[in-house]
Amino acid sequence: MSSTKEAIPHYKVVLLGEGRVGKTSILLRFVENSYIEGRPSTLTASYLNKHVIVDDKREAHLSIWDTAGQERFHSLGPIYYRDAKGAILIYDITDQSTFDRVKSWTKELRKMCGDNTKICITIVGNKIDLERRRVVSQQSAKKYAEGVGATYFEVSAKTGRGVEDVFQELTKVLLATVNPSCRSRSSLVDASSSMMGKSSSQDLHRIDLSRKEVTKSSCCS
Q: Could you tell me if 124 and 89 are in contact, meaning their C-beta atoms sit under 8 angstroms apart?
């Protein structure tokens, strides 16, 4: 009797947050274990693919999308929510306004994308290496996350502390509660690449958000 290997599920994950909270730094720390001091704010959308193994046996492919945080790009958010099964909302523990914006993202995602069976939300406080400058308490942020059904972590993209845990836990939750994309991994990459004109699973793909050719569509389908 022949047997076939079970297909590895694929999930699209979006990173959301204000400019300068460290979204790109967290992404690159996780995927490449790299960090660049003083990295400029992201002015494009980009994604990286990562094969994740949890509990030494379960596997998943993540396509992790990094979006620009500047106010003028917020209206483009729904473009990147589409087909997303996970969202990581990032704030700077030294800046209250970035945490307030996370609350707005959460409301928007729940309204447009549904509950935890449709999209899993993780809230992340970055820059714990600047603990002395903290203004958002861990207790209040954790309480808020629990209240909206999100998991909560604090990390430092600079030192790498806690970053791996965020993606490991999110992957576990995705595997346990959310159906993977109805599209194959290759078709999702191809669809993304059609917006950018190229494709490679090992490259950092970028979309110029200043261009007007991107078409808005419904999210989290």
A: yes
Q: What are the structural domain ranges in the chain?
A: 10-208
Q: How far apart are CA 135 and CA 96, in angstroms?
A: 6
CATH top-level class of 10-208: alpha beta
Q: What angle do CA 34, 87, 41 make, to 5 degrees?
A: 45
The answer to pTM > 0.90 is no
Tokens at residue 4, please?
A: 């076939």
How does pLDDT run across 180-213, given as a tens digit for each residue?
654 444 444 444 443 333 333 334 444 443 433 3
Collapsing DSSP states into helix, strand and coil, what is residue 82?
Answer: coil
CA dist., res. 206 & res. 192, Å (int)? 10
What tokens does 94 get? 């030294």
Alpha-carbon dihedral 197, 201, 206, 211, rounded to 10 degrees = 30
